Amino acid sequence: xxxxxxxxxxPGAGTLAALILVLVFGSPWYxxxxxxxxxPGTAGGWWLRLLAWPHWRFDSDxxxxxxxxxxxxxxxxxxxxxxxxxxxxxxQLARARGTISQFxxxxxxxxxxxxxxxxxxxxxxxxxxxxxAFRAAGEGATYGLFVGWIIGLATxxxxxxxx
Length: 163
What we know:
- Keywords: Membrane, Transmembrane, Transmembrane helix.
- With 163 residues, this protein is mostly helical.
- It has one domain.
- Helix content is 72%, strand content 0%.
- The chain has 8 helices and no strands.
- Helix 7 runs antiparallel to helix 8.
- The two termini are 15 Å apart.
């Protein structure tokens, strides 16, 4: 009972949705399936591949550094989603549950989380560049823009705080 009460808050529900998205669609199994079975030249194929953007992996031929960076990006997306859901005023100032401001606060939190997670993980690359950081942040924000509506829907109806 205490577990379900904690996720009735807008930040809790949005963070749980972000965690599920990253765990399921960021998994190596889904990422491999999307790469092998979708056409990036179609809108549906592009979107299915985009879902795997904050991927994580635990078994790869890549260097340990690149594995940690990929995992860090996935972790930061979830952590920064929680942070931005608490910081954005839409869900905090809404007087009624389920208002459109909660939806947009959740959506925008995921856009910011994706952009900042990509920007921060770029700092850990072997040769980080400003252009690389801008491109990565753009990819993260694109992910948040096209997937963040799910977080927005998850935050609808949640309480504003942890009271």
